[in-house]
UniProtKB/TrEMBL annotation, chain A:
Family from the record: Belongs to the prefoldin subunit beta family.
Listed Pfam families: Prefoldin_2 (PF01920)
TM annotation in the entry: none
Cellular component, GO annotation: cytoplasm; prefoldin complex
Keyword Chaperone: yes
One term of GO molecular function: protein-folding chaperone binding
SUPFAM superfamilies: Prefoldin
Coiled-coil regions listed in the entry: 75-109
PANTHER family: PREFOLDIN SUBUNIT 6
Record's keyword terms, sorted: Chaperone, Coiled coil
Name used for this protein in its record: Prefoldin subunit 6
UniProt GO BP: chaperone-mediated protein complex assembly; protein folding
Automatic annotation (TrEMBL), chain B:
Family annotation (PANTHER family): PREFOLDIN SUBUNIT 5
GO molecular function terms listed in the Swiss-Prot or TrEMBL record: unfolded protein binding
GO CC term (a single one): cytoplasm
Name used for this protein in its record: Prefoldin subunit 5
A Pfam family recorded for this sequence: Prefoldin
SUPFAM superfamilies assigned: Prefoldin
A biological-process GO annotation: RNA polymerase I assembly
Similarity comment: family membership: Belongs to the prefoldin subunit alpha family.
Amino acid sequence: MAEIEGEITVFRQIQKELERAINLKHQALSQVGENEMVVAELQFLEEDAKVFKLIGPVLVQQDVVEVKANVSTRIEFIKKDMAKIDAQIKDYEKKAEEQRQKVMRMQQSKAAAQ
Amino acid sequence: MADSDEKAIEYRKQLAKQPLQVLQQHKQSIEGEIESIMSSHMQLRTALARFSNSKETIRQFSQQQPEQEMLVPLTNSLYVPGKIDNVESLLVDVGTGYFIEKSNTQAQEFLARKVQMVSSKIGELERAAASKRSELELVMTIISTKSRILQSQAKQRQQAQQAQQS
């Protein structure tokens, strides 16, 4: 009995990790969305437009070309991160399924023994 | 259209084969999906209100004259007197910490674009919610039909048993 409960706790833990990874993925997705909106907005600008970046509490003027490059690299960066998170999610899903099967087998053999 | 009708019928058949417990779970997951769609819908509505509000504000601001006196809010309850210097140039927050200097008209165009984008997203969500709701209805009808059938079967069995005993 205690053994099965231990395995169930392990299963719950894996599920928690999975949930955390999925949350991270959602966050990354919304970040990409926001950055892509900024890129779309930058496309409308002339070369000499004034663009500022909020650094701490101050606005610092930036070069338009530089900003475009910066935002694009950020998108790339987040997308790479997202691929990592995707792999994690797959891994946890697999682990959770394995653990679920394990618990089920234990419960079945216990029921058969009774 | 005929294709999606066929799919709907197929989906219905698949559902009707499922045991009651699976259907209940399915119902719960659809309910959860509807809830999350509705919460995004709410968020988009507030965003929409914010954008249209800002647009209206700068439209009114553009009609002010330079040198016009105004009270500038320092806190919620503390204002200092000031003068409008320039109604034509605005700093627009485009997200992720970037601000772009825009003319008043450009800023209004920017906000109009945002309003349009958010409205179309809201429309999408409303369509998604409607289709989920009809799915939920379908599942609920199947659940109630199924449980009625199960009940009448149980009753029949009971009656058969009683007939045997007597």
